[in-house]
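Collaborator request log, item 7. Partner lab (contact: R.S.) asked for a structural prediction of Alkaline phosphatase to inform their binding assays.
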Amino acid sequence: MAEWVQGLMDSMGYVGILLLMILENVFPPIPSELIMPSAGFAAARGDMNLVVVILMGTLGSVIGTLPLYYVGRAFGEERLVVWADRYGKWLTLRGKDIRKADDWFDRHGPKAVLFGRMVPGIRSLLSLPAGMSEMPMGTFLVFSAIGSALWSALLAGAGFALGENYDRVEQYVGPASKIILGLLAVAAVAWFIRRKREQEHAEV
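Returned to partner:
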């Protein structure tokens, strides 16, 4: 993966960074933790400008959020509520749970998008609830851009500082993303068990 990323940037330059960061948001197995530090290392060698690297990374990241945003927008809250009321019992999920989640996102969505864009593992997926809750496009783009810029600057700066050891960034951030996903999975299981028990008590 590292060789492919480096080869694409060597052949396409800034456009390669842009395309890779778009793909990273659509296909998470292509990690920004590898793309941006590699670009930062290229800037340290004098092959690229660090500021332009960060700008291209930010632009690609923001563009990459749009497909899932529009998927969420097309699916919509009402369709999800109908689906949950019809089939959600198998997941202990009800339509009113969807509405509660949507209300929460309406209140905290901008902060969730801003900080979520800097969390490996969920940074791409946040576009779905943003679309489902019909967050205004302008708001979504602004907070996505700020979060993406901070994340791109952090990773590119680390690659610039580490030089030839830029791949250490992915070595540290990669396990962290797995821990975050693991914690989210545990939280989902705990929520499932709690809801199941509530349903059982309600039926007694």
